[in-house]
Amino acid sequence: MTIHPINALSDNYIWVIEENDEAIVVDPGEAEGVLKLLEDKQLYLNAIILTHGHEDHTAGVNRILACFPETPVYGPEETADLNTETLKGEDTVELLGQDFDVFVTAGHTHGHISLLMNNDALFCGDALFSGGCGRVFTQDYQAQFAAIEKFKELDDDVKVYAGHEYTEKNLNFAHTIEPDNAVISEALEKVERLRKEGRPTLPSTIGREKDINLFLQAETLKAFKELRQARDDF
């Protein structure tokens, strides 16, 4: 199995899971890169997965379906207009022989979901980023904090496939909060090198995020909310 990142829009990642000449596309904010990869590699599109309803994660769906009209779309209630099957927390869906466990990770949107594939790969949309987490557009900080607590329960070696390339800015923010934190400083230097080379900083892992992500280190809702609001203003 191979998981391909597709750069989209200004800083989005669309993830394409390839297995035996078939593919699953996660959060296609635009169609062009997806269609090119599928054509170049001669892949059959098995499914589309959506984590939430924001346009930068869904805008490519209809054009992709125009080329692959039989493709099922799996997503939360907030993408019901696009869904073939609507997913809820604690659902499990099998695609390409892989089990995808669904859990609610609201806060960024009211119905945001994340999917854990075979307890190995986490597709978390905008709920979790490397070094950060999603902006809480709903103002439901309790829901976003609960999502963070769920992520902390996952195995350390679970790989994190987030929806945006925000790592460098997140770690710059973390460095201003904890300037003497050597782990964050070293991580920032590595990320800066990767970005100068035009390389992605993802996937991360849950274990790495526990070390560098201040949001996973917040012990209380109050601390989390203050940190998130400070990041909003950064």
From TrEMBL:
Provide the binding site for Zn(2+) 1.
52, 54, 108, 126
Q: Which UniProt keywords apply?
A: Hydrolase, Metal-binding, Zinc
Q: Which GO terms describe its biological process?
A: methylglyoxal catabolic process to D-lactate via S-lactoyl-glutathione
MF GO annotations: hydroxyacylglutathione hydrolase activity; metal ion binding
Required co-factors: Zn(2+)
How the cofactor is bound: the record states: Binds 2 Zn(2+) ions per subunit.
Instruction: Please name the InterPro entries in this protein's record.
Output: Clx_II_MBL, Glyoxalase_II_hydrolase, HAGH_C, Hydroxyacylglutathione_Hdrlase, Metallo-B-lactamas, RibonucZ/Hydroxyglut_hydro
Query: Key word Zinc present in the record?
Result: yes
**SUPFAM superfamilies associated with the record:** Metallo-hydrolase/oxidoreductase
Chain positions recorded as Zn(2+) 2 binding sites: 56-57, 126, 164
Metabolic or biological pathway, per its Swiss-Prot or TrEMBL entry: Secondary metabolite metabolism; methylglyoxal degradation; (R)-lactate from methylglyoxal: step 2/2
UniProt keyword annotation of Coiled coil present: no
What EC number(s) has UniProt assigned to this enzyme? 3.1.2.6
Recorded catalytic activity of this chain's protein: an S-(2-hydroxyacyl)glutathione + H2O = a 2-hydroxy carboxylate + glutathione + H(+)
Q: Which residues form the Metallo-beta-lactamase domain?
A: 11-164
**What family does this chain come from, according to its entry?**
Belongs to the metallo-beta-lactamase superfamily. Glyoxalase II family.
Q: What does this protein do?
A: Thiolesterase that catalyzes the hydrolysis of S-D-lactoyl-glutathione to form glutathione and D-lactic acid.
Name the NCBIfam families for this protein: GSH_gloB
Assembly behavior: Monomer.
Name used for this protein in its record: Hydroxyacylglutathione hydrolase
Organism, by scientific name, is: Alkalibacterium subtropicum
Lineage, top ranks: Bacteria, Bacillati, Bacillota, Bacilli, Lactobacillales
Q: State which gene encodes it.
A: gloB
